[in-house]
Amino acid sequence: MRHLRFYDPATGVFALIVSAVGEDVVVEPPPGLAAVEGEFDPATHRVDLSTGEVVPYQPPAPSADHEWDATACRWRLTPAAAEAARERAEARARLDAIDRESIRALRAVAAGTDTKADRDRLAALEAEAVPLRSKVNP
Q1: Sign of the dihedral defined by the CA atoms of residues 110, 116, 121, 122, in that order
Q2: Alpha helix stretches (DSSP H) within 6-115
Q3: Are 129 and 121 in contact (CB under 8 A)?
Q4: What are the pLDDT digits (tens) for 111-138?
Q5: Residue 29: Cβ-neighbour burial (10 angstroms; 0-12, 13-18, 19+)
Q6: pTM of the full structure
Q7: N or C: which end of the chain has fewer CB within 10 A?
């Protein structure tokens, strides 16, 4: 099996991977790309444009919230950013639950059949939702 990696000839960064069965199979590079044969991790290798050789490569950080994990050879969220993302996800999930829990009381208010318990429930849910919104939309 042949493994072809297509890369941007201006940067050497891999853009596409194709595997072909049989040595006689001809695979033309897509327009604007060049090819190199072999098995390489496109996230950690690129083509050195001056030599044509595949060399180790550390891509730019996706954001300031990422740090390089040398063992995995990948960018990972910093512990603080990962914690913030987890907190946002939990807040979003709770806000979704609050929305679902509000439906029955909101229907009663809309129909004009609400009770003090319905209004109290909505007020309590809204009070819980306010600080969560600031975590989801800082």
Answers
A1: positive
A2: 79-111
A3: no
A4: 999 999 999 999 999 999 999 999 998 6
A5: middle
A6: 0.63
A7: C
